[in-house]
TrEMBL record:
TM spans (from-to): none
Keywords, alphabetical: Carbohydrate metabolism, Cell membrane, Cell wall, Cell wall biogenesis/degradation, Chitin degradation, Cobalt, Glycoprotein, GPI-anchor, Hydrolase, Lipoprotein, Membrane, Metal-binding, Polysaccharide degradation, Secreted, Signal
Domain NodB homology per the UniProt entry, residue ranges: 157-347
Bilayer topology: Lipid-anchor; GPI-anchor
Name the record gives this protein: chitin deacetylase
Source organism per UniProt: Cryptococcus wingfieldii CBS 7118
Necessary cofactors: Co(2+)
Region listing for Disordered, in residue ranges: 379-423
EC nos: 3.5.1.41
GO molecular-function term, one example from the UniProt record: chitin deacetylase activity
Name of a matching Pfam family: Polysacc_deac_1
GO BP annotations, alphabetical order: cell wall organization; chitin catabolic process; fungal-type cell wall biogenesis; polysaccharide catabolic process
CDD domains in alphabetical order: CE4_MrCDA_like
Amino acid sequence: MVPSTVAALLTVFATGALAHSGCGGHEIGRRNLGGRTIQARAVTDEASAAESTDVATECTYYSYEPATSVTSQFPTIWESASILSNDTEATELFSKINSTLNEKLPDDVPHGTPTGDWTGVNYDSSDPDCWWTHAKCDTPSSDTGLDADITVSPEPETWGLGFDDGPNCSHNALYDLLLENDQKATMFFIGSNVLDWPLQALRAYDEGHQICVHTWSHQYMTALSSEVAFAELYYTQKAIKAILGVTPQCWRPPFGDVDNRIRMIASMLNMTTIVWSDDTDDWAAGSDGITEEDVNNNYQTVIDAAGKGNYSTHGPIVLNHELTNYTMSVFETYYPKIKAAFKYVVPICTATNTTQPYAETNVTCPTFESYIAGTTNTSSSTVNTDGTTAANSSSSSESSGASSSASASGSDSSSSSSSSSSAAFRDGVSGMGVVFAGLVAGAVLL
C-alpha cells in the first residue's frame, strides 16, 4: 500500500475501530461465561428470554446449561481465537488449509494490526491480494479459484436485509418488529455473543432468520495470522452448531476487511463471503464526526435511489447492525420507508437463491420466488429409518400469520425451544465434522 493510501485509511478507520470495539459493549453485555455473576436473571428457555423489551431486564445475565457445559471446548470469549491444544480435529483441518494457502497464496501476508492500524504497511498499489480495505476489491482473480464476494442482491428492486454483531441481549423490540411483519433477515453472529446470549441466538434461528458467521472476536481479519483467522471462523461455526444445531455456510468480515488469504480460509470452511453495497454508518454515530443526521441521510440516500430507478436491475445489500439500541431503533424507524420504496425486502439467502444456507442439508432457505409468493419460512426435514424424508414444522412464520416461533406466547413454543436446544447441544461437539468432510471437495475447487 502506498503511504498516501495508508494515511487515508488510517484517517477513515482509526476511530472506526475504536467505535466498533463496542461490539458486545454495555448494551450487548460482554461477559465471561462461567465467571462470577453479580446479577442473575431467571431465564430458563427461549420464550422467557423473549418476554421483555426492558433493556435492563433483557441484559441481566442468565445461565443456560447447553452453553455453559461446552465452554471448555472454545477459546476465551472476546479474546483472539486460537486452536485449543486438545482440539485434534481443528489442528488437522488447519494443517490441510495452511498447506493449500502456502501453495496457492505464498505472498499474501497479514496487513497491519487487529485494531486497524496500518502504520508502516507497504502494500502494492496493484492490489494483488484483492484486499477490500485497500480498494474495495470484491472479485479475486480467476487464477485463485475463489468466488467473488456477494455485494448486491441480484433481484431487482430488492433490499437484501442483514444485521451484524448479534445476538444482542436487548434485541427483542427489533425481533418483535420483524416477527410482526413476517420479515426474515440474515444475522451475522459473533461467536462470543452466541455463547454469551444463547437464547437470543436461538430466537433468531427459530424465527426463521438466516444465521451467518461474523468471527469470534470481531477484529480486522487480514491482520491476523492464518491460524488465528482460521480459529476465529472455525470456533464461531462450532458455537453456532452447538447452540442452534446448524453449521453456517456464509460469513461477513468485520469492517469488510478481507483479502484472498482470508477468503480462501473461509472457502475451505465452506463459507461464502458476503460484504455490502451501502453502509448506513449506524455503528459510527457519535464518533469520527458521524452524527445521527448522517445516518438518517445514509438511509434516505438508498431509499431515494430506489425512487430514481437505480435498482431496476439489482438491489442493495445494506450494512445494518444489531449492535446497540440506537442501531436497532433507527432501523425500526426507517423500516416502513424501506418497505414503501422497495418492491421486496428479503434475507440475503433468498436474494441470492441460496437454498442450502447450512451444511445440514435438511434445512433450506426459501427461493426468491417462494418468498415473494408468501412462503417466507425456512423448512427442515428429518430422515426416516426407511430412508425417506419427512417435513418438519418450521419454527418461522408464513404469510398466513401462522407462527410456531411465537416465542413469547405459550408453552408449546417453550417446549419446542427446549427440545431443539437439547438436540443442538447433543450434536454440537461433532458438528464441525461436516466441514472436515467437505474439505476435499473444497480443495478441488480451489
